[in-house]
What does this fold into?
Amino acid sequence: MSQQTNGINIGAAIKDTIVAGLLALIVFGPVVGVLLDGYEFSTRSGDVAAIVAVVMAGRFVLSVFTQTDFGKAFLYRQSTKDDGVVVTSPDYKSKMTYILPIVIVIGLIAPFIASKYVLTIVILGLIYVLLGLGLNIVVGLAGLLDLGFVGFYAIGAYGLALGYENLGLGFWSMLPLAAIMAAIAGAILGFPVLRMHGDYLAIVTLGFGEIIRLVLTNWTEFTHGPNGVSAPLPTLFGLEFKRRSSDGTPFHEFFGLPYDSAYKYIFIYIVLFLVVLAVLYVKHRLTRMPIGRAWEALREDEIACRSLGLNHVLVKLSAFMLGASTGGLAGVFFATYQGFVNPSSFTFFESALILAIVVLGGMGSTVGVVIAAFVLTVMPEMLREFADYRVLMFGVLMVVMMIWKPRGLVRVTRTGFATRKGTVK
Amino acid sequence: MDIVLQQLVNGLTLGSVYGLIAIGYTMVYGIIGMINFAHGDVYMVSSYLTAIAIALLTFFGMESFPIIIFGTLIFTIVVTGAYGWVIERVAYRPLRNSSRLSVLISAIGMSLILQNYVQISQGARQQGVPTLLTGAIRFDVGDGFVQITYMKLFILFAAFLGMGVLTYVIQKTKLGRMCRATQQDRKMASILGINTDRIISSVFVIGAAMAALAGVLITLDYGAFDFYVGFIIGIKAFTAAVLGGIGSLPGAMLGGVILGLSEALFAGLISSDYKDVFSFSLLVIILIFRPSGLLGKPEVEKV
It folds into this structure.
């Protein structure tokens, strides 16, 4: 009895450990231990023993840790944590006003210094920043779980490729058109669906993303199926970034430069960087406007908002369409960057990756999403030897983040308000 | 005519299996109001366990069909049930009082973990099981014929037996009564001395066991599977659960059969390339026009 009041109950910890070990043996034993090979199999008892040992050790440490004073305090903090936003004092000056100009200047100089390889990775990172920002409006701000976000991304990418092939539309005309197309698709999908319960929305959007992918795969006469379609490169006032232009002079001849394939990446990078900045600015302003406030209020308490006269369908629809159009923009950049699109780029895994970006970065936090997008897209490029474990890591990340910090690593801050001096009290 | 009849037979077997998986969705939704996104992947794990059990049993020299099928079923159901328990304990129980969005994201994470874990440990290539039961009954219909394989008959028999046992457990046993009480009012049930955490765990185990039964049956019939099979069949089973009315057990079975039949008819008569598109569109249409499903009660918002 004295063990329970103070000190560590080693007996209970050992019991937990044995139970965990047995469960690990049942769960991991067959799947890890027996490697199927046709109708034959080979055994790997060493791996199973290692996994079971790790699980038992982990469980023992956890069991002992939660019994120490520090562990108890930790558990208490976890159960009573405050998930709200941080409200800064009204006269608080954000450090962003100094950091942002520096980031912009570095961002604009960087492509001329960086190697082509680094540039391509950074472009990919920026595309995911765009996707993350789009999904962050839908999931983070409006609280609508959209699992088919990749569908809008596909609409943008295929919009550019097929628009060029069938209608001769180039990058610049498709950029706004793709955003509009994706927004319309978002409205058509969202209008009937947004009235219903949040969980259903997740499944319906998941179904929508899969429908888009299956149609792209099976409608071979129009989309060329799994073979894909080639997408055009952007042009600078009609100057093409090719070695030889079919019509008119290419970019490098016009300026009398030697041909370099990096030019097109530099150009895509700069356009993309400016678009990301524009989206960031729009989002920053929107969250301070009534519509942005309405998104967050609706996320927190739908019934209260509807009682106060907010049209919940229109408010959600605006978030959904705005997120979708950002996804469409990202799709155009992806298509022109790859020069080629096919349905395998738009699987559910992409949606999950974008969701992981939003979850890691912090729901509703812009800075967090930008950082998370770079971390999750650039890191796999650096750690090629762990490529097999990438999806596993994303999965673990989602579960752990939801248990440990459901609002993401970067907390959302909001400027406080105070009555101005001299106003009537 | 013979195509329609043949597709009806195929659809009925497929649908009864969808119904088995849909039970897992519908029970979990009924008791804690969450969509267990990882359920399709639990089914996928059970496909692998089926192949492993068959390989082990043949290795130890057991060749007769009843022994293999019985051993495989017990092994797969026990291990998959353990998966259900562990998943609930690790990924869902710590989030019991969090927002629904958090639990759903955690479930998606769990689904990714299961897929990638199986892919890493068993490889990405397709796996298979040997055909255990051959032979078929043939009926002549007009110019053609309708063929019912013994395997399909066995699937129908096993699926309906499984559903019967489950209905008995839920309706007649003490565990079933506690499950229903927890579903109706979790707080009240715990005040009356029901360990609701344990009941929720056992619901996950029951759901996983039903998915395991479905996994054994489908794997024996189709013979081939990979680590990605859980995704599509998971969405379809969810469609079945929603069609029948999520939270309702007879609804899940009915929804499964209706979905299986309509999908098989669509594939046979219109286009088999678009049969998945058909199922997903059906899901969207049901959710828009009748979100409470055929047998479900409409959801009332409480303040």
Q: What stands out?
A: Strands of chain A lie at 34-37, 40-43, 86-88, 229-230, 340-341, 413-415. Chain A is about 70% helix and 5% strand. Residues 312-338 of chain A form the longest helix (27 residues). Chain A has two domains: 2-79, 107-413.
